[in-house]
Each structure stands twice: as C-alpha cells, then as structure tokens.
Amino acid sequence: MRVRPGADDGTPATRPAALTGGVVRRSAQVVWRGMAEHPRTYVAAVGLSAVFGAATVAVSQVLGRVTDQVVVPALAGDADARARIGLAGLALVVVAVVLALGVAGRRIFAGIGYADIGADHRRGVTRQYVRLPMSWHRAHPAGQLLANASSDVEAATGVFNPLPFALGVVVMIVVAAVSLFLVDGWLAVTALTVLPLAVAANVVFQRYMTPAATRAQQLRARVADVAHESFEAALLVKSLGTADREEARFAAEADALRAANVRVGQVRAVFDPVIDMLPNIGTLAVLLVGAHRAASGAVGAGDVVGAGFLLTLMAVPVRAFGWVLGELPRALVGYDRIARVLDARGDMAPGSRPLPRAPRGLHVALRDVTVTVPSAEGPVDLLAGVDLELAPGRTVALVGPTGAGKSTLVGLLARLRDPSRGAVLLDGVDLRELRPDDVAAQVAFVAQQTFVFEDTVRGNVTLADPDDPEAPDDDAVWAALRAARVDHVVRALPGGLDARLGERGANLSGGQRQRLAIARALVRRPRLLVLDDATSAVDPRVEQQILRGLRSARDAARTDADAGPTVLLVAYRMSSVLLADEVVHLAAGRVVDRGTHAELMARDPGYADLATAYLRESERRAADDEDEPADDEPAVEDAEGVVP
Amino acid sequence: MSAPQGVRLETTSTLGPLATLRRGLQVSPQLAQGFGVTLLLAIVAAGGRVVVPIAVQQTIDTGILAEGGPRVGRVVALVSFAALALVVAGACSAAVNVRLFRRSEAGLARLRVTAFRRVHDLSVLTQGTERRGSLVSRVTSDVDTISLFVQWGGIMLLVSVLQIAVATSLMLAYSWQLAVVVWLAFLPLVLVLRPAQRRVSAAYATVRARTGAMLGAISEAVVGAETIKAYGIGRRTERRIEAAIRSTRDAQVGAQVRVATVFSSGVLVANLVLAAVVVVGTLLGLDGGITAGRLLAFLFLVQLFTGPVQMATEILNELQNALAGWRRVLGVIDTEAEITDPPDGGVPSPRGPGRVELRGVDFAYPGGPPVLRDVDLVVPARARVAIVGATGSGKTTLARLVTRLVDPVRGQVLLDGVDLRRIRLADLRARVVVVPQEGFLFAGTIASNVAYGLRRARPAGTAGTAGPAVGPAEAADVATRAFAELDLADWLADLPDGVLTEVGERGERLSAGERQLVALARAHVAGADVLVLDEATSAVDPATEVRIARAQEQLTAGRTTITIAHRLSTAEAADLVVVVAEGRVVEVGPHGELLAAGGAYAAMYEAWLAQTR
Fold this sequence. Notes:
heterodimer; A: Rossmann fold; 2 domains; six-stranded mixed β-sheet; 23 helices; 10 strands; 62% helix; disordered N terminus; disordered C terminus; B: alpha/beta; Rossmann fold; four-stranded antiparallel β-sheet; 21 helices
C-alpha cells in the first residue's frame, strides 16, 4: 500500500497528488502513476496481454502454414501432407490453449489492478475526510465529497480496465507486422493500413460517444433526483392535488433523458457499422492484392488466407485503443478532482500534551477568544474577545438570540474549530497543545443535529468495535441509556442493544435520536459535557428528567459536589435554563453578563426580554404525551410518522 | 405489533415472459411500432456478415486456385461486389440502430411517466409502506435496465440470432458434416456457460451490494464528520471504511476472475473448433467432400458463429434482468389505487362553507387493530377546532379521514353534507388542504415554493386541480402578497434575497421554523375552504415561534380549521376542543366548558400546568 501525500495532518507532503503540464503529459502521468503503484500486477497483466497478442497472430500464422503445407497438398493427394494432419491439429490446439490462458490471465490481472487502484483512491480520500478539520468540511458540500469517493474514483480508474489489453495489442501489432513482412511486403502493407484507420475511427467514436454518454448519465441522475424529491413530497402533492404538475415536471426530465439516449444511439448507429466494416474491407483488400501476388507466384493461397484471417482476429483488440484513448479525458477529470482532496491541508495541527484524568469536572477557560470568518462583506467576528471561566462541576447555561455565537463558542470546546485569536484552556492547558484522543475521551459534545451510525444500538453508544477491551460494558451502556431516558425505547426494539439502526437512524424519531446521542456522551463519563441545543426535539418533561437526572446522579454517586462533569448547555427552553447553576448571556459574539437567573433578570434587561420570550414560547406548548410514538404501539404511530 | 399497511406494491407482477411483453406493449405501444421494417433491415444487416466468408471462398476457389492459375479479373469483380454489399449492410445496420433507439426510448419514457404518476395516485398507506428508495428505483434503475438491454442486448440479440442462423445455413450449404462438428463442439459450451454466467451475475450482485455498503460507510465519514471529530473516533472510522473498501475490492476481483474464466473458456472452445474443422475438413476433403476454398471459408464462418454464441449467454442474462425490471415497473402500474374518483363521476362539490361531519366512523389499518371506533363529530362551517389527545389516540387518523387520505372501514365522512367518496378528488383537493407538520419544500426559491400552492383555472377538459406552474415573476408577486397577508412581511425583509431566497435541497437552508412559515404561505395561496393543520412538535426559536402563531391566526381566519394541536394556546383559542382517547372521541366543547366539566381535558390541562409552572 502506498503512503499518500498529505495523508497525515501536519506532515509535509513529499509530492502533491495534483498533476502538472499539458494534457498529454498529465494523461501519461495518470496512467503511469496507477501502474507504478502496483508494479507486479501490471508486469503480469501487460506480459500476459502480450502473450495473448502473440498467440492471436500465431493462430493465423499456424493456420496459414497448415493451409499451405497440409490442407492444400493433402487435398491435392499428397500422402506426406495427409500424414501431417494430426500434427497440424495438435499445433492448432497448443496455440488455442496458450491463447485462452493469455486471455484469462490478462483479464484477471487487469481486474486486480483496476480494483487496487480504485481502492487506493478511496482510501486516500476517506483518510482525508476523517483527518481534515470541520472548517474544510463546511466548505465542501456532502454530495461533492461523496462523488469524490464514488463517481470520480470510477472515472479515474475506468481507463485501467482496457489498458493492459491495449498495451498487449501493441505487441500483437508489432508481431503481426513482422510476420506479415516476412511473408510478403505488399500483403503486409495492405493489411496494416487498415489498423491505423481502425484506431482512428475508434478514437473519433469515443470523442463523440463520451460526451453523449456522460450527458445521458447526468440526466439519469436528474430523473432520479426529481423522482426522489417528488415522492418525498407525496403527501403535499396529494394534499394540494398537484399530481398533474408533478407528472409534467417528471415527464420533461424523462423526455430530456430520452433525447440523450437517442443521441447515444445515433452516435453508435454511425460508428458501429464503420468500425465493423473496416477489418472486412481490409480482408477484401488483402484478397485483391493477394490475388495479384499469387498470380505472380510470390505468395500462396495460405498466405492470403492467413493475412485476411489476422485482420478479423484483430478487429476487437484494436478497439481497445479506442477504449483507452476515449477513457483518458474522463480519467483526467476524475483524477484532478480526487487530487484536490488529497492535496487539501488542514490548519489544525494535533497537540501532544496529555490531559490527565482527574476525579472531577474539567476546568474550562476562554481567554480573549475571537473567531473571525470571511464573508462576502469582509471578515466577520462570530466571537469577539470572549473571556469566560467554568468552574469544575458547574452547570452553566448559555443563552442568547439566534446568531449570538452560541454554537461557535461551544464548538470551540470540542475543538471543532480553533479560535482566530486567544486561547481555550482545559485544566489550564491550551486545547491546541493537548492530545486529541485525551480531549475526545474527556469532552463530550452533543450537537442539535444528531448523527446516528448504521450500526447496532450498542455500537452507536460506545462508538467502539465490539471486541475492543476498552469499550464500556453493557451495564454501563444501559446506565447511560437510562440516564438519557431512552432505555425503554431500546428495550422495545427487537434485539435490544444488538438492534441495528437504519441509515441515519431512520427507525428512530427525532427525540429518540437526540436522547441516544446524549447516552453516547454520558457513557464516556465525560469531565466536560457540552449540549448544543441537544434536546430540542425531546419532550420538555423528558428533557427535565434527563437534566435533573444528570445532577442527582452526580450528587448521589460522588461524595463531593464537584465530582460530576462540568456542563455547558445551550437551550431555548426556560425550564432547562432554570436548572443551571449559572447563566451566561451572549449577544453579538460578546458576553453581556453572567450570574444566576435571578441576578440577570434583575440587572440585564436584554436577558430579561429574552427570558420572557422563552417563557411565552413555553406556555404555547400544550400537554402532549410524548414527542414520539407511545411505546405500547410503536408500529402504528411509526407508520403514520413515515408520511411527511 | 402489526404495522398498518396499505395495499403493498406488487413486488413483481406474476406475469410470465410473454405476458410481461404483452402487458408492457400495452403500456408502451411505441415499442412495437414499425418493428416489421426494423426486422427486415436487421436481416439485411446480418446478411452482410457472411459477405466476407463467401468472398474468401469464391476468391480462393474460383480466383486464386482457379484452373490454369489465378484469375485476377474475377477477383476484382468479386471484391468490388462484396464491398458494395458491405456498404449496403452497414447502412441497414445504422438504420436498425436508430430505429430501435427511437422507438424503445419513446416507449420507455412513457413507461417511466406512467409508473411515476401511479406512485402519486397510490394511497398514503401504500406509499408509506414502501421505502422511498425502492419507489424511486421503479422509475429509474428498473426502467434503465430495460433501456440498457434494448441499447445493447436488444440489437445484439437480433443481430446474433440472425447471424447464427445465416452462418449455420451457409455452413450447411458448404458441408453439412462440418456444420454438425461445429454445433456439437459448441453445445457443451452453451450448457456450461449458462450456469457459469449465473455465477457471474451473482458475483456482480455481490459487487453492487458491497459497493453500496462501502459508499454508506464513506458517507458516514462525510455526514458524520462532526461527531467523528468530537468523539475522536477517526481511527475506528478509518478501520471500518478500510474493511468496506477491501471487501469491495475483493468482490471486484472475484467477479473478474469468474468473468475471465467464462470468457477464456469461450475463446478456448472457439479455437479448438477451428482445429477440429481443419482436421475433420481435410479428412472429408480427401473423399472429395469439400474444396480448399470452402474449407477456408468455413474458418471465417466459425469466427462468425463464435461471437454470438459466446455473447448469447450474456444477452440472455441481460434479457432476464430487463424482464425482471419490466415486471417490477408493471407491478407498480398494476397496483390498485385505493382512493379513487367516484366511478359514476360523483356529485359536484362547489366552493362553500366547509362543514365537516363524521358519522359512525370505524377505522383500522389493513391487518391492524381498530384505531377509531364509532366516531361521530360535527365541525361547523368556519369553526376552528383543536384535536387533542395522547400520541397513538387516533388524532392523525382522524385528520387523514377528513382529507380522504384514507377511507373509513364503516360509516361516512361528509363535506357540506356529501360523502367524500362521492366527490371528485380534484374538487376535494381544491377545497380541503393539509399543512403537514414538517413543511416539505422543493429545491428552488421561496417564491416558487409558495406559488406551488396556487390553483388556477385549468384549461377546459383537462383533469386535475392545479394548473401549470406559474412563471418566476408571477410567483414572486403571489408570494410577496401571501407573506404580507400573513403578517410575515418583516420576516421576508430580513432575508437577503427576499422571496427569491434559495431554500436549498428539501429547504435545508432554512430553519425548521422558517420552513413552516413558507408552508403556511403556500397553504394560504391554495385558498381552501377547509384546512387541516398538523402542528409541529419540535422547539424553534421564540421569534419564529411568535411568527408562526401570528401567521396561523391569519391563515385560519374565516376557514374551517381542524388542528392537531400540540400547543395549549391553540386549544385555548379554538372554538371547539375535541379530545380523542383510545380511538374514541371522549369530549367535545369549548376550552372553558371542558375545563369546567372537570373531565379528561381538564386533567390534561392540569398536568401540563403543573409541569411548566
């Protein structure tokens, strides 16, 4: 396995993945780099392809000889020739076996090379996805990154499928040329003029075909997009009675695809017969010239047949050139897009200082923290000169209007980004100097948008491999699920902890997903728990139970009050804010005030306004049993819930 | 725990191959148009394939090996004639290509659109029981397999069958003994290839499945990047992806090994046949059974024969895939829509006050327990009614009955005194509109999403409620007016591009609350007599919350409104509160009265108060 440049954060790359130079040079580089990464595979693939090429020529050669030396004389009554018939058959069988083995070997090794190079690319880009910082992720849409790992990889590797074949054909053509010239110069020249014509026709064909096929492919994706969106809106469509309009919209896309497919057909209609015809025309030309040469006694009938037969044999192999040359532009585009990912650099170097585990919450300090991001109107400060200290074991609520910088601030604590100026200190050490593993083990961050992996419930809570000895045991998992008030949901799932959660947790409601994410945080016994509006879809009463549970568990399990985790929570519900020891009021990227709720209500008019608005909003919410299906009949409600 | 299900889609129709073809041609008659001419052209094209072998035979026998030395003049004449024949055959082949593509793509586009429409006509229950992806694949990849087959396999099949037929008859004409040798040699290959090809298909299915799993794993690294970073599980993620990449790679190699084996055994047999023809042919020739030219022509004919036979098994597989795809698409088209227009045209339901009544309604999802029992309820015209009740009590089902997304098992639902089943769906949808909890938005601008609700007079004689979509300028006007009428002009003013703001895929560039605002404006534009509102449960920021309440107030003014309420204020403000418990309506009355009565509603209210204060 090769070491990808830029694979390790902070390690300077020895060679960038990006290609330089003109199109021809870059095309050659793409092909060469791929083969050079797997030298043994490609030596075998190209070598066997050459064997195949030589054997193909040998078939026609042997056939020509057999015709002249055995068939024609034997039919003319030559007894010696008659005796050699078995030998002639044997020779043909030997060549046939070599040919078949060459074909099999070439295809197998070409397949291995293709699969390996594709795997290399995928490894390279996904390694980058895992290592590059969130700032990079935010700048690249998910769809694009997925395309980098799927369609771009396919585009970049497609050329490697026919490549060994085409390289073997070079050998075939050389062998054929030599053997033909040994028989007769005129015959050779006649037969060989067809080959460049066939190659040229194939290249032209691919040049027309590739854009036509690409367009059809894009439109196919477009049809799927429209269908997907429209079916997702099924209830809306039914409700507004807009099925006709949706049909018209879909029909327009389907018709564009139809036209594109017909265009593909037209290109093929023109080129297929031409490409089929060229070797045939070549054979006819060989017959013509061969008759002249035979008339002058220079060649025998067998020579003419052999040369003609060679052309029919070479019809398909010569097309391999067309495939390779036609695939190259696509490969170049795909490779360039992959190279942009491989060469991306993160601005987040990992630290190396350990963060010792202590039996108390983390001490958190922000020192003059400013976060600046570029925007269309110039740089904007999301946070400006924030100084903030959280004492170990305290529960602090962060309150502020939308856009105040709450999410930015809490994201800093999990090092999802670094401050532009100032520093974040955990137990007095700059977060940037700390080992990422230690930080991840002690800081648990729960975002509003929870992410559920396609894994079992257990895997989603522990985030560890099943055989990992460090992974929390099932008791710990159940305890965390209980603390997050989601244990009864898991118990109702077939398989319990072993139940597999669908794609993005499709079989859970929004509130259940959020609670699962809280369990995921709690099971690590974090020293700092950051909840970024992590209970928005959870029923208010359940939210209360969870937050109160956090406090009482802390108070009950430990003797001294500050043994529990430090908690920083962003919330929209006043009832949650009231559970905090302290409130920090953030507005426009600055800390306006901090203190208890009562203190801020008394002295901070902005906070008082905000709190009143939150209370009004709480009052709007009526009694509703749960945020999700009642557990006694989940299937019924789930099915109802499926419809948007 | 039986999940409620609608009529399941016919996963594959049970039709046999011929019946599938017949039914398919009914749906897409374009496929059969002009097939006779195409077939004639294909025969000529296939005939072109034997031009060269015949030319070789004639040239050798009557030209080069002619009595008294090579006859160049004859060769020139033969070759010129053959070249002409090749050109004619090539032109026919081009015409076959174009005709097949034109007709089949027209037919398949029709098939796609028909299936798409049918999915929308199916009941919400049927739609709900299918995974969205599988519905999408019915109108995409399933049709694509047919399309790919026609583009590649169909032409090949046509040409190959003809080519085998022509080659065989010519071989028989030259030497029936040799023809038998060739057929006998290929027979075992055909027998072996069939199962081998099936294993190849299985191997490719594995590749596809593993590639899907791999892309799923990779997508987690992209979509879940924040979680992966926050929990420091980068290495584990890499390990999981690495395992998926490796297993995909192994499956690819495995499939390639099988393909190589099948392909090379075809090559081997073809060349062994060549040897057999030479040996047997020569031995036959000794008895004067065959001339040298014929024997050599035979070698070319064998080449002509080999290609299609090797290809035939692959084509048969493609054909099976295409048939399977076709059956799946036809399965959708032939699934019955449960909610349909009255068969006799029904009775007109003109715009009106919008009085809704349920009479003795029972409802159960197919195969499930009763969800509603003996429900009687009158919603007076222009009244605002709030339905409250525990989750699972049947609130949602009640709303579905009123909008005729489902029909009652027993009893009647009436709009202005007419049973919903007697009203044309187009009329009903114009009068009754649902605003779902999660306001789904299409990719596009806010304006285009709001204008989506617009009903326009449709051209006479056409079906459906909603006319064509409006142009962008008109959409902007409509949307601006709607937001103004809903008291949301201030929100609009805050947006950088106003109504022309792009909402992104599924509206994800807006917050959940903002999406609800757009959905309310869309419902407003729809101008229905009866509104069914499903209030959202999740928390949104207070400023948006206030706007939603304000807009809802404006939207429901003067309209019959049935709200599945999650907000206390909604229940308080309603003219009537309907309390549903365990499938029955247990209380109906204004907020104040119910509170005073001290029943279920009062208890719910108390519980709620205790929890917030």
